[in-house]
Design brief:
The complex is a heterodimer of chains A (807) and B (225).
Chain A: H1 2-15, H2 17-45, E1 57-65, E2 70-73, H3 80-87, E3 92-99, E4 102-107, E5 117-120, E6 124-127, H4 131-134, E7 139-141, E8 152-156, H5 157-164, H6 167-170, E9 174-177, E10 181-189, E11 202-204, H7 206-211, E12 232-237, H8 244-258, E13 266-273, H9 274-277, H10 293-322, H11 326-334, H12 339-368, H13 372-375, H14 387-413, H15 417-421, H16 434-466, E14 476-480, H17 485-489, H18 491-500, E15 504-510, E16 521-522, E17 524-526, E18 537-541, H19 546-549, E19 554-557, E20 568-572, H20 573-578, H21 584-587, E21 591-594, E22 599-606, E23 621-624, E24 632-637, H22 645-656, E25 663-666, H23 667-674, H24 676-710, H25 712-720, H26 725-759, H27 770-797, H28 800-805
Parallel strand pairs in A: 8-10, 18-23, 20-22
Antiparallel strand pairs in A: 1-2, 1-12, 1-13, 3-6, 3-12, 4-5, 4-9, 7-10, 8-11, 9-10, 14-24, 14-25, 15-24, 16-18, 17-21, 19-22, 20-23, 21-22
Helix pairs in contact in A: 1-12, 2-10, 2-12, 2-14, 2-24, 10-14, 10-16, 10-24, 12-14, 16-24, 16-26, 16-27, 18-22, 24-25, 24-27, 26-27
Chain B: E1 2-12, E2 17-28, E3 33-37, H1 44-51, E4 59-64, E5 67-68, H2 74-84, E6 85-89, H3 100-110, H4 115-128, H5 144-156, E7 162-166, H6 174-189, E8 193-197, H7 201-204, E9 209-214, E10 217-223
Parallel strand pairs in B: 3-8, 3-9, 6-7, 7-8
Antiparallel strand pairs in B: 1-2, 1-4, 4-5, 9-10
Helix pairs in contact in B: 3-4, 3-5, 4-5, 5-6
Classes of the chains: A alpha+beta (807), B alpha/beta (225).
């Protein structure tokens, strides 16, 4: 029986080759898209699930509630760890201090000078041994106990190999952190899986951090409960059967005990489950990205819709073909086939096509995976074949078979044998056109929705790229160095050598360019008032050449100079307005107290510049001088073309900082990086909009084929009566144009609603103009006409004698 | 074998009611060869569809082998049909996507005969019909006469008690037509009951008895000598 099904299925696939190709191609594209989406979701939801105690691991989060805003921080004050251990003895707490852009000098023994220097952007964590009672790592040498002592460090295998050749030879070797802190390798762990937000790579003991505090610029404040940095984090492992809620309740009491409760901002803590760390967009994590669950859900929905679209195509094409198969069905029924047998046969055939499509899809997905990083936040190569994906594929194929095959099987098996055998099955009996019309409208509505989303997302991206950010980001080279005392001491000489280079226009030392993802906020008071203002002040630090190097515009006053930089401050327009001053000149001479410091005099007001990404609004900002934090050298070049001056700058660096590795990048590039996620999102829209258009065009082609069969006789009679080719093409196109317009009526409001919501993420955004919708509907009408055109013309030019004879 | 009495079938469209069978009664005995004749639209085909259990009468009785089958549902009819009735059509009605062998094999598949046994039975029948050499060809590759021989082979492969033939020579030239009539006569002589609808007086002469129909009723029954 199945051999017979198989034979006839294969022959049917061959016989209706163009239909089979459309079906397989449409399904394959859709399934490939869905497989890729599945892999993305699988990867995102797998973060840190491998820890054996994953459901008992929590991060201690700090919550600051002020009258105007509620803020969340992953940073916990340094003294909190000890207090937490004291007050919650049943819980295991571990603490770590994360270090960015640390320079690591590799040394075989501590007395020789080494030129093997590496800068690690991430992965450097000063950790206490308890961290590894909480998180699982596999020890290849040593154990967590080595982290009990200062001056010891653990390396991940690949880093150990990178530094020392083999991980075995790394053991007992030395590293110097930022040219100051000497540590000895005392343990090796296997590399942390890529689906972790804890990319432990270089792990000095936390004790090392504590005994070298002078290098980290926290000063005496390190014991202050008012200071917290997102680099100092605390994690908890709860005992079995203990509820996080019970700890949370006690954390309220804990907070009241340790924090100053008289301040306007109330601080408290709560436990964040490990499984939320990858998804909580209010907070940051230690991995390379945070996933937005809404985006992931949207992605899943797109996957489901794309497969549905392909199933709709399949249904349309199969039912269009059903009329042609009437005779076969009739004969089979006369020969004694039951309805169930016929249905099984149709489902079997569908299954075979879906299987072919599935195999093609796996190939397509395999080809597409290397390009995934351009459209998703996932930078690592995902593996296509794993237990989850195979299971997913099998389930998807079965579900697709049922979705695509069930309706056609019902239609085919319900044919009356007497009519079927006499070729009396015409398409009005094959379920009518109305269902197919509805399906095509849905398809087109979905692809138009994606077209609208794409136009808007691309427009917004262009807007951001070309938007005025309030300063000049062109031709500024950034050199990331260090802010240890040795480095700082050499800055003046370094700068004077740089200025001798013909390509260099100006040089400024700073912590941060005007636009960056870092934010440093503080409480502040204005104009000699003792009371703090109820909102936070954003700080940028730089020397007296900051404004000039970054091309900022002064609205009033001047920038501070070498002589008065310690006592003066420059503010932006937003801050000026927020403290109630209308004219920039009126702000000059007023004073401002930053944190708990002394009042400084405002000497200048700069035009607003974008301090963060354009997603956020401009914050009230002050620019101050703070030399201890100047680790970044900003070099304004005379032209955007770096050319040979890159080498010259490097030589100057090596002359002054032989023991430091230099890391350079252009400011405009680093600003573009802010929008990587959006860039990827707009690419993602483009890809899926294209897929949706292709699939719906395949479907349209199917429906036109169906109509061509159905209108065969009508076209014949019309032609005999003298209809022109043009009028017959019109006959076909008219209907689809109407369907597309109906689809548009659904897609346009939905698209407007969704994208208007998305745009709310950006403080600076484009208006959604009517042209977006006009473009979308025109594009889909033109694409549809092109698709319909071919079939319509071939139907219109067919010999009418043939079509009439068949009756 | 067949006994129908007061059989009625009425086709209704929105505003026209067509009486296809009007209280028709007759009987066909085991081993008989009966020809049904009449002008177009007299209800011959409707009758054959009902006799073939492809359609259901609106009223009246239809005893097949003594069993009342009027009112059987589709599944029961299909079951009875596939074991007892073979069909030969004017337009052959072979499945274009299947080879000669596979077309003939089809009824055996639906009656659940094992593959090895099917092969033997099909080959026997194809041999008998002298079409064995064409076993791997597709219907389009055969002449009309050959196609009808395949159709007859398919009709008899299950050893049915009854063969219903609907103008079996309608699409054939006279020599191929005679060949097919001879095949049917041979089958009848071996004991198969045959009911044949035809327009051809020549073909009707092969039968034992002619039932002439007009407007859904029998008008005359001629006994052939």
């Amino acid at each position: 029986m199945f051999k017979n099904y198989f034979t006839i299925a294969l022959r049917n696939i061959k016989r209706h080759r163009s239909h089979s190709v459309i079906n397989i191609a449409g399904l394959a594209i859709a399934l490939a898209a869905t497989i890729v989406i599945f892999l993305v979701l699988q990867h995102e939801y797998s973060y840190d699930t491998y820890h054996k105690n994953a459901d008992r691991i929590y991060q201690v989060i700090k919550k600051d509630v002020s009258p105007t805003e509620t803020g969340f921080q992953v940073g916990v004050p340094f003294p909190a760890t000890r207090a937490l251990r004291q007050d919650f003895p049943q819980v295991t707490f571990g603490e770590l201090y994360k270090s960015f852009g640390s320079q690591l000098t590799v040394m075989k023994d501590p007395n020789t000078i080494s030129s093997r220097r590496f800068i690690e952007e991430s992965g450097v964590f000063f950790a206490d041994p308890e961290i590894f009672s909480i998180f699982d790592v596999k020890w290849m040498a040593g154990s967590a106990a080595v982290l009990k002592e200062p001056g010891k460090l653990v390396l991940a295998k690949s880093i150990a190999e990178k530094y020392f050749g083999t991980w075995q030879s790394a053991m007992d070797g030395y590293l110097k952190i930022d040219n100051n802190i000497l540590v000895q390798v005392a343990g090796i762990i296997e590399d942390v899986p890529s689906n972790s937000d804890f990319p432990f790579a270089v792990i000095p003991s936390y004790k090392t951090f504590e005994s070298n505090q002078q290098y980290f610029n926290y000063g005496e404040q390190i014991n202050d409960w008012g200071l917290s940095t997102s680099d100092h984090q605390v994690y908890a492992l709860l005992p079995e059967n203990m509820k996080a809620a019970s700890i949370d309740a006690n954390l309220e009491t804990f907070s009241r005990k340790y924090y100053r409760m008289e301040s306007a901002t109330k601080t408290s803590h709560f436990l964040q489950p490990l499984k939320n760390i990858h998804f909580d967009t209010r907070l940051e994590n230690n991995g390379d990205h945070i996933s937005n669950k809404t985006s992931l859900n949207t992605l899943a929905l797109i996957g489901v819709l794309i497969v549905l679209m392909a199933c709709i195509n399949f249904i349309n094409l199969s039912t269009a073909l059903a009329a042609k198969r009437g005779k076969e069905v009739g004969i089979r029924k006369v020969m004694g086939s039951s309805k169930t047998q016929l249905r099984t046969q149709v489902l079997f055939e569908t299954g075979l096509i879906v299987l072919f499509a599935g195999m093609t899809a796996v190939l397509l997905a395999w080809l597409a995976l290397p390009y995934l990083r351009y459209i998703a936040d996932i930078q690592q190569q995902l593996t296509l074949i794993n237990t989850g994906s195979i299971l997913f594929l099998v389930i998807t194929l079965v579900v697709t078979t049922i979705l695509a095959g069930f309706y056609p099987s019902l239609i085919l098996s319900s044919f009356q044998p007497v009519e079927a055998i006499k070729n009396k099955i015409n398409n009005t009996r094959v379920g009518g056109l109305s269902l197919r019309r509805v399906l095509v409208v849905l398809q087109f509505a979905f692809s138009q929705l994606l077209i609208i989303a794409t136009i808007i997302a691309v427009g917004q991206m262009n807007f951001i790229r070309t938007a005025d950010i309030g300063f000049d980001k062109e031709a500024v080279l950034l050199l990331q160095g260090n802010n240890d005392s040795t480095s700082l001491a050499r800055q003046a000489a370094f700068k004077s050598d740089l200025l001798k280079l013909p390509a260099v226009k100006s040089v400024s030392f700073t912590m941060d360019p005007p636009s960056s993802l870092n934010s440093w906020t503080t409480n502040f008071a204005f104009n000699n008032n003792t009371e703090d203002l109820p909102f936070s002040l954003y700080l940028k630090t730089g020397d007296e050449h900051y404004a000039g190097t970054f091309g900022m515009n002064l609205l009033a006053g001047r920038f501070y100079t070498t002589a008065d930089s310690a006592r003066k401050v420059v503010i932006n327009e937003t801050l000026m307005q927020k403290v109630g001053i209308k004219e920039p000149s009126e702000a000059i001479g007023k004073t401002i107290r930053i944190g708990a410091g002394k009042f400084r005099e405002i000497v200048g007001v700069v035009r607003d510049f974008k301090n963060n990404s354009l997603r956020d609004g401009i914050q009230p900002t002050a620019i101050i001088s703070y030399p201890a934090f100047y680790s970044l050298t900003a070099i304004k070049l005379k032209s955007n073309n770096l050319g040979k001056s890159g080498e010259a700058i490097q030589q100057v660096w090596d002359k002054h900082y032989p023991e430091y590795a230099a890391e350079t990048r252009f400011l405009d590039e680093s600003i573009n990086e802010f929008y990587q996620q959006e860039e990827r999102l707009s690419r993602l829209y483009k890809v899926y909009a294209t897929l949706a258009i292709i699939i719906s065009c395949l479907g349209l082609y199917g429906l036109v084929s169906f109509m061509a069969v159905q209108k065969n006789k009508e076209v014949g009679i019309r032609k005999v009566l003298g209809a022109s080719v043009g009028s017959i093409v019109y006959l076909f196109s008219k209907e689809f144009t109407v369907l597309i317009l109906i689809a548009f009526a659904l897609a346009a409001p939905a698209g407007w609603y969704l994208m208007n919501n998305w745009l709310q993420n950006f403080t600076y955004r484009i208006d959604i103009g009517a042209w977006v919708f006009i473009l979308a509907v025109l594009a889909s009408v033109i694409i549809a006409w092109l698709t319909v055109g071919y079939k319509a013309i071939s139907a219109a030019t067919a010999n009418p004698v043939k079509s009439l004879k068949s009756e | 074998m067949i006994k129908i009495s007061n059989l009625e079938k009425i086709y209704r469209t929105e505003d026209v009611e067509t009486v296809a069978l009007n209280k028709l009664s007759f009987e066909v005995k085991d081993g008989e060869f009966v020809a049904v004749m009449g002008p177009s639209g007299c209800g011959k085909s409707t009758l054959l569809n009902i006799l073939g259990l492809l359609d259901d009468p609106d009223s009246g009785s239809f005893l097949f082998n003594g069993i009342e089958v009027a009112g059987f549902n589709e599944r029961k009819r299909a079951d009875l049909r596939k074991r007892n009735i073979g069909f030969v059509f004017q337009s052959f009605n072979l499945i274009d996507e299947l080879t000669v062998f596979e077309n003939v094999e089809l009824p055996l598949i639906y009656t659940g005969v094992k593959a090895a046994e099917r092969k033997k039975i099909v080959e026997d029948v194809l041999d008998k019909m002298v079409i064995m050499h064409r076993r791997n060809h597709y219907p389009q590759q055969l002449s009309g006469g050959q196609q009808q021989r395949v159709a007859v082979a398919r009709a008899v492969v299950n050893n049915p008690k009854l063969i219903l033939a609907d103008e079996p020579t309608g699409n054939l030239d006279s020599s191929n037509g005679n060949e097919v009539m001879q095949l049917l006569t041979d089958l009848n002589e071996q004991g198969t009951t045959i009911v044949m609808v035809t327009h051809s007086e020549h073909d009707a002469r092969y039968s034992h008895r002619i039932i002439r129909m007009l407007d859904g009723q029998t008008v005359m029954q001629d006994l052939m000598v």
